[in-house]
Design brief:
Length: 240
């Protein structure tokens, strides 16, 4: 990896006249993948009121006197210290809240710089996340193949490829959750998805939670029906 020059980093609010990149996302699947990650956290009660998840939303830092903005496909910020209105256009870590605990990039057919260590302006994504922001977890996901790489900062603040567990999931210590790949259908898209696990239990989406609750009600009803049949067989009329 290239030697890191001495970067002067300051945490300043994005100037009002700064023109943000409004280009559309690279792939139709990216918004769905991002929304799925956030939804399961919220339903499981693992998205505190102070937390912020972002999708193609600018995270800005001033590096060597120049504003740098990167918009990861998904990120998780545990503590936003200003109102959402104040962070409507962009987010400046340290000034407006905590550094992201994880950033994710979803690979597409468009050539990107997810692995770029380019240190000169504008810096590559890898360099920005590792050297400037020092995000502890950086996930790169290939939706078409289901390949997932999770890089984590080591003791020298450099990214090392994490080791998945026996189920192929990566431990995200700062969130107390596992991140892994799941194959199935959601919103008429069949393919690979990123999912969260807590203590071996999959964090469910809303539609899955509805089905689970319906199945639980059916099981309880079946048990009640069997018990009623047993009581009647014994000559006892069950109370309704």
């Amino acid at each position: 990896m290239l030697a890191s020059p001495t970067d002067e980093v300051s945490w300043e609010k994005l100037p009002d006249d700064f023109v943000l990149d409004n280009e559309p996302v690279d792939n139709i699947n990216q918004p769905a993948l991002a929304a799925a990650l956030t939804e399961s956290l919220e339903i499981a009660g693992k998205l505190p009121a102070t937390a912020l998840t972002t999708t193609n939303y600018g995270i800005c830092v001033t590096v060597n006197g120049k504003v740098v903005v990167k918009a990861p496909d998904w990120s998780y910020i545990a503590n936003l210290r200003v109102s959402r209105e104040e962070a409507q256009r962009s987010y400046t870590p340290q000034l407006q809240g905590d550094l992201p605990l994880i950033v994710m990039e979803f690979l597409s057919n468009t050539e990107g710089d997810e692995y770029s260590i380019k240190p000169t302006y504008p810096p590559g994504k890898w360099y920005f996340y590792e050297r400037i922001l020092k995000v502890p977890n950086y996930a790169i996901f290939e939706p078409e193949t289901g390949a997932l790489e999770v890089y984590q900062l080591d003791a020298s603040d450099r990214y090392q490829l994490g080791a998945p567990d026996a189920h192929g999931r990566y431990w995200i210590a700062q969130m107390n959750l596992f991140l892994g790949v799941w194959q199935g259908t959601r919103e008429n898209r069949r393919g690979y998805w990123l999912r969260w696990w807590s203590e071996g239990e999959l964090l469910l989406w809303g539609a899955e939670r509805v089905i689970q609750e319906q199945q639980q009600r059916e099981v309880l009803q079946q048990r009640a029906d069997r018990l009623a049949a047993q009581l009647r067989a014994a000559g006892i009329e069950p109370e309704l």
